[in-house]
Write a structure and sequence with these properties.
The protein is mainly alpha-helical. 39% of the residues lie in helices and 8% in strands.
């Protein structure tokens, strides 16, 4: 997906000729066809949510007994993790284990039940594998080096899915996730914007 890392994908000449415009249109068309076949496994109200907003929200999604076990376990049982620095933010990732009898393993198994798998596949426009993990993000007040995720990003040129299962309510001052509603819509204006961006994607003043 990197324009700067690939001389073909990042070619201003080829993109002026419509390379990026074409691959974006093909990717979105393929995803829409797949969603039509995946929709029969979805809750109708969640199909409507996605079509209107580009995202789906489930309140209290995790079964209460599993939720209570998981929160208690995470507060008392240390787990291996890796972390990286992104601007003034430090994301820390802890993989969820496989079949070790823990609440974390049970949460992983729950995330792969057919209904959840279908939901994530529908949003992504393809039904494939995903790798859930526990994530915490610590931020520091260094505003001179902002977190790159603070700017609304578009991760890929094709539809994709991310999902978050929040273990507690997120306060306004905790820098919760921001999603631009309707960004899943594939309009002529969106396609023209993609085309324009592809031509300048490798310029020095384009950070991404």
């Amino acid at each position: 997906k990197s324009f700067k890392g690939n001389p073909v994908i990042g070619s201003a000449m080829l993109n002026r000729m419509g390379l990026h415009r074409r691959r974006v249109a093909v990717a979105h068309g393929m995803s829409e066809r797949r969603r039509r076949s995946l929709a029969r496994r979805m809750r109708p109200d969640e199909v409507d949510q996605f079509q209107e907003n580009g995202f789906v929200v489930r309140e209290n999604a995790l079964p209460d007994d599993l939720y209570q076990r998981l929160v208690s376990e995470l507060a008392t049982v240390p787990r291996p993790a890796w972390e990286r620095v992104e601007g003034h933010a430090v994301p820390r990732i802890m993989p969820l284990p496989f079949h070790d009898g823990s609440a974390a393993a049970a949460a992983r198994e729950w995330l792969f039940q057919p209904e959840i798998h279908a939901l994530i596949g529908y949003v992504a426009g393809r039904s494939g594998h995903y790798n859930p993990a526990l994530q915490t993000i610590v931020t520091t007040p260094d505003t001179s080096n902002p977190d790159p995720q603070s700017s609304l990003p578009a991760d890929t040129f094709h539809p994709t899915a991310k999902f978050w299962l929040f273990l507690h309510d997120v306060a306004e001052d905790e820098e919760g996730s921001v999603i631009f509603g309707g960004s899943q819509s594939f309009t002529p204006e969106r396609l023209e914007w993609e085309h324009e961006q592809s031509i300048i994607a490798t310029s020095e003043d384009n950070a991404h």
